[in-house]
């Protein structure tokens, strides 16, 4: 019984080891295939100024208008807007000067620039830091001269300048909106603010409301004004009649003249009589 158990366990162990060997062989083959594919996709080119190192892909996605594609053909890197005619660049891209100084570095995604891209001057100073999204400039960008001084800094949105851009060497600060310069209108300091205008309007409305009388006041005031107007009309009529009166004729045809107030009235009979007596007694 013991011999059978030992032989069974040993047989299972060897079978398990053989399976592991097969798995190991498959993994080694897969890794060797990857290493064989990688050099095939990797390319190197050079010209009088630069040397380039990059990778390509066999995938052919649909081209989109307004996006710049980078592709490889006839041992040269080409670039075109809205379409491509060769194998698209994909992965890490590195450009060198002929003296092996780093010139440019970034990443491609099926022919489109993506992520952070950096460029350098010949002597190694940083030239620019740009950010891309789906082949378009998007995000904060910085450009510097060969001595490290700032030339320009600002923001891109979908390939167009936006927001505030600063140009220290020119001493300019320009605001952009959708790629166009935004003209900032000067504020009228004499004109009151929005809230001041609202509260002034409310104050005017309340003053006008206070001035307006009530319905009953308007009704009775109208009656009063009509009565007073009637009285004034009557008084003016009577005054005009008195002024325009002509001397009237009496019963015997004699004309009665209006008496002047300055003329002395003649004494009465009794006044004359008693007046004479007073004179005699004196």
Structure notes:
The protein is α+β, with helices and mostly antiparallel strands. It has helices spanning 2-41, 194-211, 215-243, 269-281, and strands at 42-46, 50-57, 68-73, 76-81, 87-89, 91-97, 102-109, 112-120, 126-133, 136-137, 139-144, 150-157, 160-167, 172-177, 180-181. Residues 34-38 and 245-258 have low confidence and may be disordered.
In total, the number of strands is 15
Average pLDDT for all residues: 77
Distance between the termini: 194 Å
Principal-axes shape call = elongated
The Cα radius of gyration reads 57 Å
Structural class call reads: alpha+beta
Q: What composes the largest sheet?
A: 15 strands, antiparallel
State which percent range the strand residues make up.
25-35%
Proportion in helices:
25-40%
Specify the number of helices. 4
Low-confidence stretches: 34-38, 245-258
Assembly category: single chain
Please trace the helix and strand order, writing H or E for each element.
HEEEEEEEEEEEEEEEHHH
Brief sketch in words of this structure:
By secondary structure, the chain is α+β, with helices and mostly antiparallel strands. The chain has four helices and 15 strands.
């Amino acid at each position: 019984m013991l011999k059978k158990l030992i032989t069974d366990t040993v047989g299972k162990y060897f079978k398990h080891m053989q399976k592991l060997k097969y798995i190991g062989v498959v993994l080694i083959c897969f890794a060797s295939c990857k290493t064989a594919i990688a050099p095939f996709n990797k390319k190197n080119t050079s010209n009088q100024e630069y040397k380039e190192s990059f990778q390509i892909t066999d995938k052919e996605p649909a081209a989109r208008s307004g996006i710049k594609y980078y592709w490889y053909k006839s041992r040269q890197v080409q670039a075109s807007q809205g379409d491509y005619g060769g194998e698209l660049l994909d992965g890490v891209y590195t450009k060198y000067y002929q003296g092996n100084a780093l010139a440019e570095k970034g990443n491609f995604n099926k022919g489109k620039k993506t992520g952070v891209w950096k460029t350098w001057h010949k002597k190694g100073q940083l030239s620019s830091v740009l950010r891309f999204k789906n082949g378009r400039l998007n995000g904060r960008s910085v450009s510097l001269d060969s001595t490290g001084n700032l030339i320009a800094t600002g923001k891109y949105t979908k390939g167009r300048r936006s927001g505030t851009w600063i140009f220290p060497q020119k001493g300019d600060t320009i605001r952009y909106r959708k790629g166009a310069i935004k003209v900032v209108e000067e504020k009228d300091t004499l004109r009151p603010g929005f809230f001041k205008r609202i509260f002034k309007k409310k104050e005017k409305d309340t003053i006008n409301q206070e001035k307006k009388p009530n319905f009953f006041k308007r009704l009775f005031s109208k009656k009063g004004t009509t009565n007073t107007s009637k009285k004034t009309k009557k008084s003016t009529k009577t005054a005009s009649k008195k002024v325009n009166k002509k001397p009237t004729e009496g019963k015997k045809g004699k004309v009665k003249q209006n008496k002047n107030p300055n003329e002395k009235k003649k004494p009465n009979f009794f006044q004359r009589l008693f007046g004479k007596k007073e004179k005699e007694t004196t």
